[in-house]
Amino acid sequence: MPRDLDRQALAEFVALHPGMGDRTVYRDIRHVLPGTTAIITAERLRLEANWRPFRRPGPVKPSEWTEGARELLERAICDRARTGPVAVSLSGGLDSSIVAGVAAAVRAPESVLGIALVPGDQDLAVHPGWVPDGRPQLEALARCHGNLRIDHIMPPVHRVDVDPTHLFVATGQPIGLAPNIGWLLGAWQHAQAAGVQMLMTGDEGEMSITHRGSLSALVRQGEPARAALEAWRLARGGQGRLRDHIDMAFFGGTWNLIRGKGPRPGDWRHYSPIHPDFAQEAGVTELLIEEGFPGGFRHRPPGYREAVDIYMRRRAGTVDNIAALRALTGVDHTSPFSDRRVVDFCLSLPERAFVRDGRFRWLAREAFRDVLPAEVRDNSVKAEQNAEWFHNLRLRRDRLHEQLEEIETSPLARQALDLPRLKRLLDQWPATAEAATAAGPAYRSTLVRGLHVGSFLRWLDPSNGG
């Protein structure tokens, strides 16, 4: 197969734009996306959608919402656990805890393995208001289910972070998961050593039963009074400030934008390593403004249907991330939350099924109340994924300089990436993990993604002699 690059697709990938559809970074290679059928004849190839998300009439009583969600997720988990040992990747958060709790309940007395990635005692980079890991929640979950055994893994720096060449050989492309790929491989390799062929996760939970809920979606659905009431209840319960909830619900976050909080729509410079000229050539700013926010995240929190639409546009990236983990370990991935029956059910529910009684994620908290300890069910504090990222990055700082020097020899990389910016980031190295966190996505995302894509382009570049 020819390895000619699709420059437009490459630019959108580097800018974290989710709208690539079935395109890849190669001009002549396409994805067959989930929900799509490829029909191949001697004359042609035709791609047809076999599933599309659409709203349909659904249950109207809250008890029917919770009972339906519980029944369908149990069925999805049972269908995925028919043969072999059952293992679940755990973080201590609501999504993965629901999967592990239900799996333990339906498989009892058979054992269920939980695999949790946790940091050591090193300097950790944690966002304000977050915690380094979910060990207290995991311990409470294990106490609830006697047949759930949780292994805590402290993964070291993985060789794919030091040199991603073997990842490119295995998958043929860069991946959006680059900042966390080495960390996640710790769980996948532990599953591989345990003889697990398929690892369950809580991925896509927020695009399914654990959708957070959106006050602005309530307004758009003709329920402004309910949105205002829930904003007051949320603030009264300590979940944010009333003025911020009102701003998001009725004004789309305009006041926060005016106050300069967060990047403005279309401002790829905040997080992307793309070269300015390459971004202009591809019309990246206009594409991101059309999406509504950098990387496709809307400043106005999406309602459930909008969240599914965003997920559908990101399917290619999800497929590539899973393919990379599978290619490097032989362990496959499955997420019960993305089961079509579960998503179809959630599409039939009103937004008030997800934000209700002063709580976000109401449906998930109520439907699985009996399989979750209070430490998980009522927890509103998030655990940082890969909290040791800066420590591990610092361990290979010399290698980062070498990597950038190698990348600078590639004409393709010099065109696509803002290499002087990456060099400045290396030269202005933060003294502490706290300072690295304060720099926003500059080091965790911009630098790491830039070096990852640059290494791929150098590997691909015929002028490199590869």
Could you give the topology of this structure?
Layout lengths: L6 H8 L21 E5 L4 E5 L12 H19 L5 E5 L3 H14 L4 E6 L17 H10 L3 E6 L5 H4 L2 H7 L9 H13 L4 E3 L14 H6 L3 H13 L5 H10 L2 H5 L17 H7 L1 H8 L12 H10 L1 H15 L2 E3 L5 H8 L7 E2 L2 E2 L1 H6 L6 H4 L11 H7 L1 H11 L3 H6 L2 H9 L5 H6 L3 H19 L6
Parallel strand pairs: 3-4, 3-6, 4-5, 6-7
Antiparallel strand pairs: 1-2, 8-9
Helix pairs in contact: 1-12, 2-3, 2-16, 7-15, 9-10, 20-22, 20-24, 22-24
Walk me through this protein's architecture.
With 466 residues, this protein is α/β, with parallel strands linked by helices. It is built from 24 helices and nine strands. It has helices at residues 7-14, 62-80, 94-107, 135-144, 159-162, 165-171, 181-193, 215-220, 224-236, 242-251, 254-258, 276-282, 284-291, 304-313, 315-329, 340-347, 362-367, 374-377, 389-395, 397-407, 411-416, 419-427, 433-438, 442-460; strands at 36-40, 45-49, 86-90, 112-117, 148-153, 198-200, 332-334, 355-356, 359-360. It has a five-stranded parallel beta sheet, with helices on both faces. A two-stranded antiparallel ribbon has the order 1-2. Strands 8-9 form a two-stranded antiparallel ribbon. α20 packs across α24 (442-460) and α22 (419-427) packs across α24 (442-460). It is globular, with a radius of gyration of 22 Å.
Please tell me what the overall shape is: globular
Number of helices: 24
Mean pLDDT: 89
**Within the largest sheet, what's the order of strands?**
5-4-3-6-7
Largest sheet: 5 strands, parallel
The helicity comes to 40-55%
Assess the beta-strand content as a share of residues: 5-15%
Low-confidence stretches: 294-298
> Which structural class matches the secondary elements?
alpha/beta
**Count of DSSP strands:** 9
What is the terminal-to-terminal distance?
16 Å
Rg, alpha carbons: 22 Å
